[in-house]
Design a protein that fits this description.
The complex is a heterodimer of chains A (about 260) and B (about 325). Chain A has helices at about 45-55, 75-80, 100-105, 120-130, 145-160, 175-190, 205-210, 225-230, 235-240, and strands at about 5-15, 20-30, 35-40, 60-65, 70, 85, 165-170, 195-200, 210-215, 220-225, 245-250, 250-255. By secondary structure, chain A is an alpha/beta fold. A six-stranded mixed beta sheet of chain A has the order 6-7-8-3-9-10, sandwiched between helices. A four-stranded antiparallel beta sheet of chain A has the order 2-1-4-5, covered by helices on one side. In chain A, strands 11-12 form a two-stranded antiparallel sheet. Chain B starts with a helix and ends in a 7-residue tail after the last helix. Chain B has one domain: Orthogonal Bundle (ABC transporter involved in vitamin B12 uptake, BtuC), CATH 1.10.3470. The chains are: A alpha/beta (about 260), B mainly alpha (about 325).
């Protein structure tokens, strides 16, 4: 097997303001070139896991490896070139245009005093084209709908040209049509060799997008492995502590509530 | 795509601001109350040695200091607003202005208040204000980093302003109190060549540093984690840029006193004209700041026989302009 793009080895973490352990001895391997979805109830530690993977939070103990090397051995710029984050939502205080905002994805490739050059504009415009926002390049990001803003965030991420994309609940603001767009984009990216680690509250989306699944609860991994193996009625029901049924509709797995026994 | 045309339009606008700054500077230089209220013509200057000396020794250093004052406050205001991701922040924030005020007042009350000492104390306590706010923010166990800095800044400012109140109460009402009050209102009336030259290097160097980081501040205006994910060191870089902005602000405050509103209103106008991208908005704020304060200072020394403190005029025009901006243009502070 090839080297996992991301490895969590016995990682524990708690926030300084709270003694409660958010992650407790977590072990996880994220396969390169695959889409890995993390499912888990609220407060399971999914977002914290992404922040740790990013290097923004430091684990209390344990080790995190990126492509087989400790995260701490990368410089910030290298990390920015390797990994991109698509946050759930982002506070934007000023009226940047869609283009100006997406252009910020080029930051890891620029020296602190360097201005973006023509090639950075080209990359960014291509990224906007890809998410279908090129025609709104000059619109203010503050005037976009939640879904459009999410697409612009994705464009910024594409402009960053990372090898691993971390997505924190990417479907949270998307309508059905845009969810499909995201799904297609995720599939296209994996075909180009990009690895994706995403968290979601939608088991259906996870089943449609992912090849591997991680079930997380109370800071630990409950189950992890290929989608077909892990995405079962028993596992999902155990995860959410609610009776559910996984049904297969023309090869697509869907979750419904099970009627009471 | 008309992106290029828009960018070149904005650059041309920037050029026009330079022209505006130079024109207003020349007009301001010729405006005053000697030999009579109003303008003095070049012919008059040539024929009147007193007028020439007045222009060169009094008006010129004052004009240049006014320009630096506006440029620093405009740039620092823009940088503060962007780094805090909050358009309602200004450079006096984080205890800087109130710290400087306390330093100057304490010097006037306890040390007699020679100009150099007042200047040094103002700079010193402006930096003390920044350090205190920063240290306090690190100890607050609540909220995100920006919110903690804001809370710490408000607290430190309040402490210093209480101390300034106490000093005013203790001050000799005939000699020291007017001096403190005058300083708190801001004025360029005491500016001389040596004073201008004493702050010029540090102010120009700070402006240059801020200008060089004009694109980087866009990334730093995003949240901490996002800025980190884009390969920056958000806390370290923000602190460095804040330090530079405070240095420029403290230097100009030290000889001009507290000139309010420039650092708040100028960045808003610059964003109206150039958009939010720091590459144009920051130089825009530098030039607009220069124009605004040169204009206000020219009025402050020529409107009335006595001098109107500069801070009163900047507050007056600043508040009116802000009101106009809020009511006539689409203005919003997200969340």
């Amino acid at each position: 097997m090839s080297i996992p793009i991301l490895t969590f080895h016995d990682v524990s973490f708690h926030y300084p303001t709270n003694h409660h352990q958010v992650l407790a001895g977590l072990n996880l391997e994220v396969e390169a070139g695959a889409v890995t979805a993390i499912l888990g109830p609220n407060g399971a530690g999914k977002t914290t896991l992404l922040s740790l993977a990013l290097g923004w939070l430091k684990p209390d103990c344990g080790q995190i490896l990126l492509n087989g090397h400790p995260l701490t051995s990368f410089s910030r710029r290298q990390l920015g070139q390797w990994m991109a984050l698509v946050p759930q939502d982002e506070h934007i205080a000023f009226e940047y245009s869609v283009l100006e905002y997406s252009l910020l994805g080029r930051t890891p490739y620029l020296h602190p005093l360097e201005m973006p050059a023509e090639v950075d504009y080209q990359q960014t415009l291509a990224a906007l084209e890809r998410v279908g926002m090129a025609d709104r390049a000059e619109k203010s990001v503050l005037k976009l709908s939640g879904g459009e803003r999410q697409l612009v965030l994705l464009a910024r991420t594409l402009a960053q040209q990372p090898k691993l994309i971390l997505m924190d609940e990417p479907t949270a603001h998307l309508d059905l049509g845009n969810k499909k767009k995201l799904l297609d984009l995720i599939r296209a990216l994996t075909e180009e060799g990009v690895s994706i680690l995403l968290t979601t509250h939608e088991p259906d989306f996870a089943a449609a997008a992912a090849t591997s699944l991680v079930l997380m609860s109370e800071g630990r991994v409950l189950e992890a492995g290929p989608l077909e193996k892990v995405f079962t009625s028993e596992n999902i029901a155990r995860l959410y502590r609610s009776p559910v049924r996984v049904i297969d509709l023309d090869g697509q797995k869907l979750v419904t509530w099970a009627s009471k026994p | 795509m008309n992106l290029k045309t828009e960018r070149s339009l904005s650059s041309r606008l920037l050029l026009w601001l330079w022209v505006g700054l130079i024109v207003i500077a020349i007009l301001a230089l010729l405006t005053g109350r000697y030999p009579a209220p109003g303008f003095i013509s070049p012919a008059q200057i040539a024929g009147d040695e007193m007028a020439a000396r007045l222009l060169f020794n009094l008006r010129l250093p004052r004009l240049l200091t006014g320009m630096l004052l506006g440029m620093s406050l405009g740039a620092a205001g823009m940088v503060f607003q962007m780094l805090f991701g909050n358009p309602l922040v200004e450079p006096g924030f984080l205890g800087v202005s109130q710290g400087a005020a306390f330093g100057a007042a304490a010097c006037i009350v306890f040390l007699g208040g020679s100009a150099v000492a007042v200047q040094a104390f103002a700079v010193l306590f402006a930096l003390v204000g920044l350090v205190l706010s920063y240290t306090l923010a690190r100890r607050i166990r609540y909220g995100g980093w920006v919110l903690r800095l804001v809370l710490a800044g408000i607290t430190v400012s309040a402490l210093f302003s209480a101390a300034v109140g106490l000093l005013k109460y203790l001050a000799d009402p005939l000699s020291q109190l007017p001096e403190i009050t005058f300083w708190l209102l801001g004025s360029l009336s005491a500016v001389t060549w040596p004073k201008f030259l004493s702050i010029m290097p540090i102010v120009l160097a700070s402006l240059l540093v801020l200008f060089l980081f004009r694109w980087r501040i866009n990334v730093l205006s995003l949240g901490d984690e996002t800025a980190f994910s884009l390969g920056t060191a958000p806390r370290r870089e923000r602190l460095m840029l804040l330090g530079v902005a405070v240095l420029a602000t403290a230097a100009v405050i030290s000889i001009a006193g507290i000139v309010s509103w420039v650092g708040l209103i100028v960045p808003h106008f610059s964003r109206r004209l150039f958009g939010s991208d720091g590459r144009l908005a920051l130089p825009g704020a530098i030039l607009l700041g220069g124009i605004f304060s040169v204009f206000c200072d020219a009025l402050s020394r020529s409107l009335l026989p006595g001098e109107i403190p500069l801070g009163i005029l900047t507050a007056l025009f600043g508040a009116i302009a802000f009101l106009a901006l809020m009511t006539t243009q689409q203005f919003r502070v997200p969340r």
